Amino acid sequence: MKFIGHLDMMRYFQKVMRRANVDIRYSEGFSPHQIMSFAAPLGVGITSRGEYVDIEVLSTDSSAKMLQQINDAMTEGVEALSYKKLPDSAEPAMAIVAAADYTLSFREGYEPSNWDDFITGLTTFIQKEQILIMKKTKKGEKETDIRPWIYQLEILPSHRIKMRVAAGSIANLKPELVLQAYFNNQNQELAKFALLIHRDEVYANCSQGDTPHFCPLEQLGEDIE
Amino acid sequence: MRKLALNDEILLSVQQPARYIGNEMNAVMKDPDRVSIRFAMCFPDVYEIGMSHLGMQILYDMFNHREDVYCERVFSPWTDLDQQMRQQHIPLFALESQDPIRDFDFLGFTIQYEMCYTNILQVLDLSGIPLHATDRKEQDPLVIGGGPCAYNPEPLAPFFDLFYIGEGETQYDALFDLYKKIRTNSGSRWDFLKAAAQIPGIYVPAFYDVTYHEDGTIASFQPNQEGIPQSITKELVVNPDDAPYIENPIVPFIKVTQDRVVLEIQRGCIRGCRFCQAGNIYRPLREHSLEYLKKYAYQMLSCTGHEEISLSSLSSSDYTHLKELVTFLIEEFHGKGVNISLPSLRIDAFSLDVMSKVQDVKKSSLTFAPEAGTQRLRDVINKGLTEEVILKGAAEAFQGGWNRVKLYFMLGLPTETKEDIEGIALLAEKVAETFYDEVPKEKRHGKVQVTASSSFFVPKPFTPFQWASMCTQEEFLQRAYVVKDKFKEMKNKKSLKYSYHDADVTILEGVLARGDRKIAAVIEEAYHKGALYDSWSEHFKNEIWMQAFETCGVDIDFYTTRERKLDELFPWDFIDAGVTKEFLKREWLNAINEKETPNCRQHCSGCGARSFGGGVCFENQN
To answer: Of A11, A44, A192, which has the smallest distance from its Cβ to B255's Cβ?
Structure first.
């Protein structure tokens, strides 16, 4: 599934909605389309268990029943985990995404030669006040400080790294850039296919104040009985 | 989870990795250890093209209904992957199981156009299967070919173990049963081929010898074994409602050319256009019943989730229940987010009414296919479409709000004169004039746009024009320039556009279409020198082919421009396609005499297809 691009995944979901007989709302006009929006596009090559899609329906059955119907219309490798009702006032998912969790590990043959040295170095590195990288923009490259976008970094057992980074339309940090910055800092190159990246969760900022409070998008809706 | 044949590094570095991973909705998953026959079905072009092909999906569905058969798909790897597979010695694999093709029992090719021939060799090569049938060993898959190009299989003869001539629905069961029986009795490849050659429609090239006259034409074509049939009759489904259609079409992840449900409403055509191979080899016309089509429309839309349904046939307007069918589709599905697309409809009051309901008039264009610029030449090709009908249709369309029209033509048709060629521009001009005559100024939404395009005519086997001499590349281009210049003289030239196809690829298509066994060496040589994806203009390398003809000592003109005698024995004459050579000859002479032939519903012309015992030949005769 990770080889399917975002646009194709959207098309896939449109067809799933039809196969599952979801009573989705269509736009008006000669070529009506489903009212559907994805929270955060997932890059090709990345796996995930934390994707969200908003739809507008004209009628619905219970969450359990709908989940069953939708999953019956899926192929192996994609599964709907929950089906929740959003309040009418809810903003589109895409607009409220603020952060995402990722788990990274090294592909076989690409592991750092000494894991302990590597994580010690990495943990020290991200304590820095500023982490500058060259980020590609429409006009070329621009030096950008990515440190404010790294919210958490944690080393997990079996050689995995978990991080929470900014996501969404205001600031979006690709998790591999953090490791790339560290490698560059060590005067090394991060090889092209070195990382296996998995997205665990996508968050909205639920705080009213200055300190962000991240809550999974899941929490914004309620089960339908 | 399934293990993929390609690793992440490869998949993430090629275009559209989804072409190679399978696992689409409705792809069939079986345990390969629990079947007797593994069949790899190949469309020798890129995934997006192959997955748009109806015939392949019909057979895939049908084969997999058998518990003892597992049919999987394989397509030509695109050039980027092709390179990596060769460098890293990765064998070509099937999408479903991701297992190497060379471990299969059968490798079947659907051969839809001549320009895919080098891709067939690519698929064999990447699979590690010897290109020549004679070099294959017991454990190699049996390589079988079908589809319209199998009606002249000779240029491909050395590369195939067997060909299936005609519609696939009828004899594959017998072929599979035979294979199982022979394998159970430890029979050899040879035993199987000997027995398979007895099944109707099956042609085993190794069992036939060809001799040639000094001038290069065929002197004899004879079986070289006892008990091998002299001629092969095409297979066809006599009553189409008896045949299974696709119950669960595969739904690709990526956008393919035909990203919709396709409903085949009928097979064959009553029209008898003399240039058209499909109109001849699929005779007689056989229609599906309305009930059959309604059932499959529901079934296929609900199991795919597609947002569009399209009708498929050679001439949809001739379908008896078209009105009822279209009304049904609109009432049932339109407004539920399902688009209805109606290609190959004759433009008249009915079709315009329907189209205005299902399309945005302002955005869509209407298509006419006059094929030739003058009535005289349209009579020669038996295209029963008059200028009056075209202009009337255009007038109605303009009044209905359309202002874009497309016109399709061919250049290089037999007997074509300067007047016919210039007629293309004149007809386009008349269509534009119709707009200004019919639509009052205040009702015009912008200008009228008439787009004419021409392809170059290629004579095909089993058509009345199989005797015709083809133009040279220079003659083709010259004719296109004449049209272009004529367009510049037109009063409404600002509303007119003209474009024409490539001429060099047309010449090659002409050679391959009417080629004999001697052409096989040229195809192989061109492939070894780098010819691949010849139907893709950005990949077509004419120099390689020209060099290959020279290396092999094969004269292009012999196959293209040469005048063929009426009694010449053609490479494909051993096939009985239903239409008799006598009928084709009669039609060729009618063409030269500019004499029209009525369509099958007006009057039977005795083409020979009646012998199959069904279809339009027996309409209203109960």
So the answer is: A11
Tell me how close the Cα of B304 comes to any Cα of chain A, in angstroms: 6
Residue B468 is predicted with a pLDDT of 98
- Same structural domain for residues A22 and A103? no
- Establish if B308 touches chain A: CB-CB under 8 angstroms: no
Which residues of chain B are within 8 Å of residue A192 when distances are taken between CB atoms? 9
CATH architecture of B238-359+575-622: 2-Layer Sandwich (3.30)
Q: State yes or no: pLDDT of A30 exceeds 80.
A: no
Chain-chain contact of A34 with B254 (C-beta, under 8 angstroms) = no
In the predicted model, what is the mean pLDDT of chain B? Answer: 95
**Angstrom distance (rounded) from CA B195 to CA B177:** 11
Q: Do A8 and B18 count as a contact with CB atoms less than 8 A apart?
A: yes
**Residue at which a domain ends, from A73, A94, A115:** A94
Task: Give yes or no for residue B622 having a pLDDT over 60.
Answer: no
B360-501 maps to which CATH number? 3.30.750.200
What pLDDT was estimated at residue B361?
Answer: 67
* B3 contact A CB<8A: no
Q: Are residues A127 and A204 in the same domain?
A: yes
Split into its structural domains, chain A has a count of 2
Q: Cα separation of B64 and B77, whole Å?
A: 24
Domain enclosing residue A170, as ranges: 96-215
- In this prediction the pTM is 0.95
Tokens, residue B418: 């300067």
Residues B133 and B142: their CA atoms lie apart, in Å, by 9
- Tell me, what's the ipTM? 0.92
To the nearest whole Å, the CA of A210 is away from the closest chain B CA by: 40
Q: How far apart are the first and last CA of chain A?
A: 31
A118 and A34 both lie in a single domain: no
Closest CA to A131 of A150, A147, A142, A115: A147
- With a CB-CB cutoff of 8 Å, which residues 420-479 of chain B face chain A? none
pLDDT tens column, B203-246: 999 999 999 999 999 999 999 999 999 999 999 999 999 998 99
Residues 331-360 of B with CB under 8 A from A: 337, 339, 359-360
Q: What is the pLDDT of residues B308-336, one digit of tens each?
A: 999 999 999 999 999 999 999 988 887 77
Q: How far apart are the first and last CA of chain B?
A: 57
**Domain membership flag for residue A152:** yes
A23, A57 Cβ separation under 8 angstroms: yes
